[in-house]
């Protein structure tokens, strides 16, 4: 089943309390067998301020690596 012919594209602006404004490309896919079900893909432009902010956001929520794992790796 090819979903790409059902896609719609737009740009979304999102304000996150920890990292601020994010500009994301949004692609919405629908499923032919269930048109009420949608899949939204949100991605930043590579090497953009939004991509950097998303990396920062990921690092803020990352759990620290236990000391025993750091020594053995």
Beta-strand residue fraction: 35-45%
The helix content, as a percent range, equals: 25-40%
Q: What is the distance, rounded to the nearest whole angstrom, between the alpha carbons of the first and last residues? A: 42 Å
Number of strands: 3
How is the main sheet built? Answer: 3 strands, antiparallel
Q: What is the arithmetic mean of pLDDT? A: 84
Name some characteristics of this structure.
single chain; 73 residues; alpha+beta; three-stranded antiparallel β-sheet; 2 helices; disordered N terminus
Question: What does this protein look like?
Answer:
There is one protein chain. This protein is of the alpha+beta class. Helices cover 26% and strands 42% of the residues. It has helices at residues 49-61, 67-72, and strands spanning 8-16, 20-31, 34-43. It has a three-stranded antiparallel beta sheet, with helices on one face.
């Amino acid at each position: 089943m090819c979903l790409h012919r059902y896609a719609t594209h737009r740009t979304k602006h999102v304000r996150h309390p920890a990292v601020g404004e994010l500009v994301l490309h949004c692609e919405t896919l629908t499923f032919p067998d269930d048109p009420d079900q949608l899949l939204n893909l949100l991605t930043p432009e590579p090497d953009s301020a939004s991509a950097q902010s998303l990396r920062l956001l990921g690092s803020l929520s990352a759990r620290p690596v236990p000391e025993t794992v750091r020594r053995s790796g």
